[in-house]
Fold each of these.
Amino acid sequence: MSKNIIFYFSGTGNSLKVAKDIANAIEDCELISMRKSRKLSSTYERIGLVYPIYIGGMPGAVEKFVKALDLSVNNNSYIFAVCTSGSGSAGGMTNISKIIGGKDGKLSYGESIKCFSNYVGLYAMGSDADNKAKAQALATKKVIKDIQNLVVKPPLKNSPLALIHGLLINSLATKDKGFNISEACNGCATCSKVCPVENIKMQNDKPMFLHHCEQCMACVQWCPKQAINYKNKTQGRGRYHHPDITIKEMINEK
Ligand SMILES: Cc1cc2nc3c(=O)[nH]c(=O)nc-3n(C[C@H](O)[C@H](O)[C@H](O)COP(=O)(O)O)c2cc1C
């Protein structure tokens, strides 16, 4: 059994990279995807939750995961949350703090890291991925120091965006009806493998969306043929994933 554990959710690798960097630095740390809820039968010194901000708050899948997390033998663990976001200040953590508090645990530390903004359904991808990755790595270093030293820091208060988060987050599930597949699709199933919520099933070598989408855009962003688009919006918007994260890492879940 390891001493520390980090759970992550990631569509384009920013959060996975942050989670990986923290795990490597604090050592003796398991890194586990939130794809599967997990019963914590052992006691950990540190429990980490790393995820992107969607509409000023947690992705629905993250909320579900945290709600299902059994903290009964970890009530005194140092629990930290680190969210990645495009704006840096969008990290509302009031909700996650409340969920953990409701399980007799305590969110001891919360921080947000500014990363490349990846919502290709809304805007074109920037051309500064490498610079953003450098800035992300620098910001992560500071967070790592805090977590190594078990620094207690009140989690970030919700941003004003969080007011609409509750209203909009559930509407994302069926937005996958807007995805279309071009003739470039060769049925490689990368989309289905990288989807963090198993929302894509291959049928006759073509992706079929199952309407419990998080809009993480992993399918659009990682498709090697750029064959998946959202309505007619993403065709000319470029594609992004964190430069240090490979498809293999996104797929290789524990
Ligand atoms: C559906 C969606 C909603 C997003 N909402 C916000 C937001 O409210 N504020 C923000 O700063 N960034 C927002 N972003 C950008 C991501 O939080 C950011 O790029 C994050 O680092 C992506 O992490 P990942 O690579 O681990 O998926 C959003 C991205 C997506 C896909």
Note: The chain has two domains: 4-164, 170-251.
Amino acid sequence: MLCANSAGRCEFDGCNKYIFYDNITAKKLNASNVAHIVAASPDGPRGDKTRSYLLSDKLENLMLLCPQHHKMIDDYVEDYPEELLLEMKKKHEDSIREMCDLIFVPKSERVIFFSPIKNVSLTHIDNQLTAQALLPQKRPASTCGINISIESAFDYNTSEYWSDIDNQLKRDFDRKIGNELDSDPNTIFSVFPLAPIPLIIKLGYLFMDKTNVDIYQKKRVPDTWKWIETRKTNSFSVNRIVVRAGSNIALIISLTAEINPKRVTDIVDADIIYIISAERIGVDAISSIDDLSDFWHVYQTVCDEIKNKECAVETSVFPAIPVSAAFEIGRRYMPGIYPKLHIYDDYNGFCKTLTIGGDC
Ligand SMILES: [Zn+2]
Ligand SMILES: [Zn+2]
């Protein structure tokens, strides 16, 4: 039983040596020491007149140790009192149990995607928080995940800026994600982005629908990347505004903030404006995977209509959307079926950023 709880490894804090094998000769051997925390005899290490007898054969009083560490705790009794040893035993056995629980949980490679938003460099992405977000359905495939961090020296809303970070993203994606997929096409990815919305749409587009990938978004309160909400919390509707006869299409997506159509017609020659709005507009417009999938269905219907009813091959998109919606728009884009998307971003007024689909 003690061997099972300790997984056959020395329970001395920091040792964790597997005791039934010799590394140098590669021979199996039993070098296990079953050590008493409170000695079996009152005169022994940490012994006690009454408790020694009571505890002598109790599992909770025994530790599996390598010979070296057994000698250590018995020779230096002052340094290794009962409480400290109990703590080591608990820590070791708890960790073993946690690890074993995870053996059959699928591994996912975290993609930590960072790029300053509107020239503001945010705090780094916490490695532990992203790892926790995967559990218990998935576990991290590697300790650090894949980091894609992109910055540009150009001014934020210039075309040089967007083409610079667009090129960097494509290059990093091929180098880091492409390599991973080449070595294992079944790799599961989990994406944690803190980046401008157009760039997140592009990242989704590079992943495409065929890759096994899911998206996480940062919540401030509580401080987590987990999808805490499990139910549907919002609904989405579509409006079609005819400005004049013609086939220039603009698409407004108002999930995190309302966008006045006037601001759109000031910038582009839109004849028809589609507006997708959330019933509840705000940073939490998409709070669950169900919300995300509801949004996706509405968005998909609009794309179909723009392509098939309006016969438009391209459309200007004005998004006020959360990270998860941005990623899905890119990931589920169907080249040749959906209109080409020109993405605009609001930074002291709308500016044209990246293009999705078409020949890019
Ligand atoms: Zn002993
Ligand atoms: Zn040891």
Note: The mean pLDDT is 92.
